[in-house]
Each structure stands twice: as structure tokens, then as C-alpha cells.
Amino acid sequence: MSDPMRPPVSHHPRTTSLRSDASRPRASLRTAVVWEVLKDALDRRVKATGREVLDVLDTGGGSGKFAVPVARLGHRVTVVDPSPNALFALERRAAEAGVADRVLGVQGDAHGLFDVVERGGYDVVLCHGVLEYVDDPAEGVRNVVAALRPDGVLSLLAAGLGGAVLARALAGHFTEAKQALEDPDGRWGEGDPVPHRFTAEQLTALVEDAGLRVGAVHGVRVFADLVPGVLVDTEPGALDALLKLEAAAAEAPAFHSVATQLHVLGETQGAAGA
């Protein structure tokens, strides 16, 4: 794939916050943990490679919830998404943030990824909210890993099984909770909009089977989806306190089993040894 697939280099201050990018308080609860892990991984890649500007691929990146903040750090980001509407929103969001020159939207999906992007051409690949919807999750992980350079990092975010079971049970849908717990794909019934859910062990196995070393595992939205919105939005200090609680629980393996989402950071052998 030729260089025109990537936005030109431009240097900007390397500071940003995903919380400032989110217009609603509860949005930060859904992204803060992942963002902190991702930003740290990007910073470590910059130090290891000696390059201030990294090439980042965001598969299924939609309207740029992560792509735009990554671009604001000074990196080049290619977003692949099947939705023209999402890509239009991405273009608008990037322009409003002043990073249109570093964000490129391309229509496509994980299955035909290398029809639109370069194989082995990226320092960091984001695969957030994609694995749940591919027919073969193992193939999906292998595909995005193939987009990494020899010293690359994968950020994988997918739906957690335990969080769905807990949510159905707390809503009084006990039969559906049991169905999700026992179903091989973690689905609670025919009306379930999510084709696949995962345990932390399943996700780490997929990453390792694709040839990566697991650098970190975090539970995401452990409490956020269970706390009444009115409490977070109106109680003084509740949002910051809940954010701190989410951050503390994210690294504890005991809470991975009840998280709504699971985040796995995978590293190639080159990156792991850097």
C-alpha cells in the first residue's frame, strides 16, 4: 500500500485528555481506563522507537472516539470502518479538533482489512468493539495482528461475558442470565444484539495464539453501567470518585469477571523486548 494511504506528518503538543473530548460525564466512564492504558502504550512506543510520530490503525474506529485524541498527541491515524455515516462524523470531528491532516478515514471492515490498508505497516493497532461482531474471532485477531510492524502493539477491547450475566440478573432476567453464562458465545437469547462475548482468559488466549505477548489486562466499566445515571450526573464529586474506583478495579483480576468490557494489550516480540 502506498504512502498516500496515510495522512502527512504534523507536529502538535503531545498532551490531551479523552475526558475533555467527551461531552457527557458518563462517556468518560466508558473510555477513561482504556485511554490511560493506550496513551501509556503510545508513549512507550515513542521512547522505544525514537520516533515522535507513530502510525496507528483504528479498525472499526467509527466517528473517532479514540482516533481523534490519538491524533491530538501528534500521531497519524487511519480509521477503517464500514459505515459511511461514521466516517463522515469522523471527518467532522477531526476537523473540529484541528487534526484533519493526521486522520484518514477508509471504508472497509476487519475481514477485508488488507484491501484498504497496508499489511505490517503500523506501530499500534486498535481493535475496539469489533471482535464481538466478526464470524471467527480468532481469525479477526490474527488479521489485525498482521497489520502490526515487528515491534508493534495491539489494543483489543471486547464485550465481557460476566458483565452481561450480571446485568441481566440485576434486571430480573434470571433465565437470560443463565443462558448467557452457559452459551458458548455468551449470548442471552435470540434478541441479544451481541454475537460474541468473552472472558479474560479467552481474550488473552486469542492474543497469545496470534503470536503476541499479553502486556496487560484490564476490566472496563466494572461499576459504571450499574450505577444510576442521576447519581453520577448530580451528586457532587461522584463522577471523579467513580472514575478513580474504575481505575483501581480495572487492574484487579477479581473484577475482570464482572466487567462489561475487557481490554487486552498485546505486544509483538520486538515490542516486548524493546
TrEMBL record:
Region called Disordered, residue ranges: 1-24
Methyltransferase type domain location: 57-154
An annotated Gene Ontology molecular function: methyltransferase activity
GO terms under biological process: methylation
Keywords for this protein: Methyltransferase, S-adenosyl-L-methionine, Transferase
Domain of life: Bacteria
Presence of keyword Transferase: yes
PANTHER family tied to this protein: METHYLTRANSFERASE, UBIQUINONE BIOSYNTHESIS O-METHYLTRANSFERASE, MITOCHONDRIAL
Stated name of the protein: Methyltransferase
Lineage: Bacteria, Bacillati, Actinomycetota, Actinomycetes, Kitasatosporales
